Amino acid sequence: MKSKTGRFITSFNGEIYNYKECGDEWKSDGETLIPLYQQLGPDFVKHLDGEFAMVLIDFKEKILIASTDVFNTKPLWIPHDGSSIGMSSYKSVLHRLGFTNIEK
Q1: What pLDDT score does 82 carry?
Q2: Is the Cβ–Cβ distance between 74 and 68 less than 8 Å?
Q3: Among positive and negative, which fits the CA dihedral 66, 71, 77, 82?
Q4: Residues 6 or more apart from 86 whose CB is under 8 A from it?
Q5: Of 40, 42, 79, 86, which is most buried, counting CB atoms within 10 Å of its CB?
Q6: Using 50, 70 and 90 to split pLDDT, how confident is the model at 22?
Q7: Whole-angstrom Cα distance, residue 43 to residue 27?
Q8: If DSSP states are collapsed to H, E and C, what string results for 2-59?
């Protein structure tokens, strides 16, 4: 998802159980991530209850937030291959893209 202004972008896999507590205007759980970040700042993930892996980028503030739920139910795999960057909840996707040295 991308914000209307292009300042924020997020990628999300999973389910946030308490997203309706964040407001009635959201049609899906993923739609709450950017507004919650804007409201609560980088600690917004502490308010999420669910099974998820997510990445949010704030281009203006130069912040990248990568998080999973507290039990790491949906893992977040990150390769450490020099200057290339990738993140996925599926390790196999990163392998297919040519990444090696992939860690949870």
Answers
A1: 78
A2: yes
A3: positive
A4: 78, 79, 94, 97, 99
A5: 79
A6: confident
A7: 23
A8: ECCCCCEEEEEEEEECCHHHHCCCCCCHHHHHHHHHHHHHHHHHHHCCEEEEEEEEEC
Asked if residues 94 and 88 have their Cβ atoms less than 8 Å apart, the reply is yes
Residue whose tokens read 């291959």: 81
Evaluate whether 80 touches 99 at the Cβ level (below 8 Å): no
- 55: which 2 tokens? 């990445």
- Cα separation, 103 vs 66, whole angstroms: 13
Residues in the chain: 104
Q: What is the pLDDT of residues 35-86, one digit of tens each?
A: 999 999 999 999 999 999 999 999 999 999 999 999 999 999 999 877 888 9
Least Cα distance to 47 among 73, 27, 67 occurs for 67
11 near 34, Cβ under 8 Å? no
State the DSSP string of 82-95: TTB---BS-HHHHH
